[in-house]
Amino acid sequence: MTELTEQPKPEPARDPAPSAEHPAQPATKAGRLALIVLAILLVAGGFSVVRRFTERGALAKETERLALSPQSMLEPTDISCAGTVTWAAW
Q1: Angle at 83 between CA 80 and CA 89, to 5 degrees
Q2: Which residue has the higher pLDDT, 41 or 30?
Q3: Predicted TM-score (pTM) of this structure
Q4: CA–CA separation, 85 and 19 (whole Å)
Q5: Mean pLDDT of all residues belonging to the chain
Q6: Which three-class secondary structure state does DSSP give residue 74?
Q7: Residue 83 near residue 71 (C-beta atoms within 8 A)
Q8: Ramachandran region of residue 24, left (φ > 0), alpha (ψ -120 to 50) or beta?
């Protein structure tokens, strides 16, 4: 008979949203993972920009070194005629 008179104590109601004092653990892990991924992407982007500027400078130097002026490709062959000059291309 005591079993019928004793009623179980109701459990305290749980708040579906976590309080500010105790944030949910999975959300913290997800946020930390997102920050790590963002940091990796920013570092990779920085390296990409630096590499592009370095390669652009190297290409400009190589182009300048290999460039030929139009005057260096032509050579006068005969200046014997009065006022006329013939040019021979290499």
Answers
A1: 70
A2: 41
A3: 0.42
A4: 93
A5: 75
A6: strand
A7: no
A8: beta
Domain ranges of the chain: 38-62
Strands 86-89 and 74-78: antiparallel
- pLDDT, one tens digit per residue, over 20-35 is 565 556 678 889 999 9
* Tokens at 63, concatenated: 């182009």
Mention every residue, 6+ apart, whose C-beta is less than 8 A from residue 73: 89, 90
pLDDT at 7 exceeding the cut of 60 = yes
Closest CA to 58 of 70, 66, 46: 66
- Site of tokens 């290999």: 66
